[in-house]
Amino acid sequence: MSEITPTEWTAILLSLRVATVATLVATPLGIAIAWLLARRDFWGKSLVDALVHLPLVLPPVVTGYLLLLALGRRGFLGAWLADHLGIVFAFRWTGAVVSCGVMAFPLLVRPIRLSIEAVDQKLEQAAETLGAGRAQVFLTVTLPLALPGVLAGMVLGFAKAIGEFGATITFVSNIPGETQTISSAIYSLIQTPDGDPAALRLVVVSAIIAIAALIGAEWFSRRATQRLHGN
Amino acid sequence: MLRVNVAKQLGEFSLEASFESQGRVTGLFGASGAGKTSLVNMIAGLTRPDRGTIAIDDETLEDTAKGIHVPAHRRRIGYVFQDARLFPHLSVAANLDYGRRMNRLSEDPAQTKRVTELLDIGHLFDRRPGKLSGGERQRVALGRALLSKPRLLLLDEPLGSLDEGRRAEILPYLVRLRDEARIPMVYVSHDAAEMRQLATQIVMLRGGRVTSFGGVKVLTG
């Protein structure tokens, strides 16, 4: 197998950038939603829960198309964002961030929610009696104790984001250098005569990224768990 | 002075308790299921009564008729739970310092020294709660509550999770605490012997009602 070409590098770096930004943007939101679902009862909770999980069960192409309808240049949100804030998602790498973030969201939220649910509420009560308000309880007790779940969610979300294909190609198409991620590059190469060696190289690269992410996740969660149990 | 007059329905169980105590250590005495912990949780502000009032000295902490409910974190009431509830991700030193940080109190090395000497926990500072014995854990929990500088200390069966030997180990610390710390306490227990050693006034609870109130002698009645 020969060297990785500059075009392939572009796709690899774009994928990494898209997945990293998507994970970093989705994580705070994911933590907030996970906390709401784990600790609060409110009207419409099952609806929020269903919405979060929707990208998991909808065909990705449907999610991508819905994003296009909402955030495309003529979409009800997209037009407003473009006119008022100058933000455009359609056919931009930032749009890939949105579609990857949406698709990764259910996988990101679930472990965080489970780990927040696993935090003993008696400890939160103890913190209250020591003078901690709700936000302080969350920041000093709940979040640190839920950290292994947060890291697990981030890694799962990242892995999903880096492999996302259907929603992304539907929403932002397959433009080399702008929206062509590893997955869409492989897809294009397979359809090109003589594209097989290049496709294979990218397959190897994505396998390496996936394995590295899994090993990293394992390492992080082991360290975090050790820290929590004071060993 | 602690004034409590509350009512709460908890499923089939109804709690209606009223007492007023001037004592240094008010003992809440009764069998398990008498409503002791529910009552203490209301004093701490962790649960709310259906109706009633709770006041310390001149300050009303709870008055359902007037819609007053001071949240737990603003009551400055220390709480030592039966199961210690130390924060597992923090060292003993950080656990002890937690209340000071949350209340934004300035550091008070003299007080820290006094409390750690009183409870004999200075050598545990760098350890994690997971590495402590049951008795050590309970002493750290006591220290943590004291160092948040509460105006009232609630102790809910602090010896309940310990075996006979450990109880004998902690009890002297509690007596010292009563005599030296000058913080009024509410001590919850179902053990008459403990009550006799610690309490100055007894509130006897049975089935969610106060059945008698007075000096330690009500235990024999």
- Please, how many helices of chain B? 6
Indicate the mean pLDDT of chain B. Answer: 91
CATH-defined fold name of chain A: MetI-like fold
For this structure, what is the CATH class of chain A? Mainly Alpha
Tell the overall outline of chain B. globular
Oligomer: heterodimer
Which ranges of chain A are low-confidence, i.e. pLDDT below 50, for 5 or more consecutive residues? none
The CATH homologous superfamily name of chain B equals: P-loop containing nucleotide triphosphate hydrolases
**Overall pLDDT of chain A:** 91
Query: What order do the helices and strands of chain B follow?
Result: EEEHEEEEHHHEHEHEE
Helix content of chain A: over 70%
Report Rg of chain A. Answer: 20 Å
- Greatest interface and its participating residue counts: A-B, 23 and 31 residues
Major sheet of chain A: none
Secondary structure class of chain A reads mainly alpha
CATH fold call of chain B: Rossmann fold
**How are the strands of the largest sheet of chain B arranged?**
7-8-9-3-10-11
- How much beta of chain A, percentage-wise? under 5%
CATH class of chain B: Alpha Beta
Brief digest:
The complex is a heterodimer of chains A (about 230) and B (about 220). With about 230 residues, chain A is an all-alpha fold.
What would you note in describing this structure?
The complex is a heterodimer of chains A (231) and B (221). Chain A has 231 residues and is mainly α. Chain A has one domain: Orthogonal Bundle (MetI-like fold). Helix content of chain A is 79%, strand content 0%. Chain A contains ten helices and no strands. Chain A has helices at residues 6-39, 45-57, 60-71, 76-84, 93-118, 121-129, 134-163, 166-172, 182-190, 196-229. In chain A, helix 5 (93-118) runs antiparallel to helix 8, helix 6 (121-129) packs antiparallel against helix 7 and helix 9 (182-190) packs antiparallel against helix 10 (196-229). The mean pLDDT of chain A is 91. Chain B has 221 residues and is an alpha/beta fold. Chain B has a single domain (2-219), classed as P-loop containing nucleotide triphosphate hydrolases (Rossmann fold). Chain B has helices at residues 36-44, 92-102, 109-119, 134-147, 164-180, 192-198, and strands spanning 2-10, 13-21, 25-29, 51-56, 59-63, 68-69, 77-80, 152-156, 185-189, 201-206, 209-214. Chain B has a six-stranded mixed β-sheet, sandwiched between helices. The radius of gyration of chain B is 17 Å and the shape is globular. The chains are: A mainly alpha (231), B alpha/beta (221). Chain A binds chain B through residues 120, 122-123, 125-133, 136-137, 140-141, 144-145, 227-231, and chain B through 44-46, 71-79, 81, 83, 85, 87-89, 91, 98-99, 102-103, 127-131, 144-145, 148.
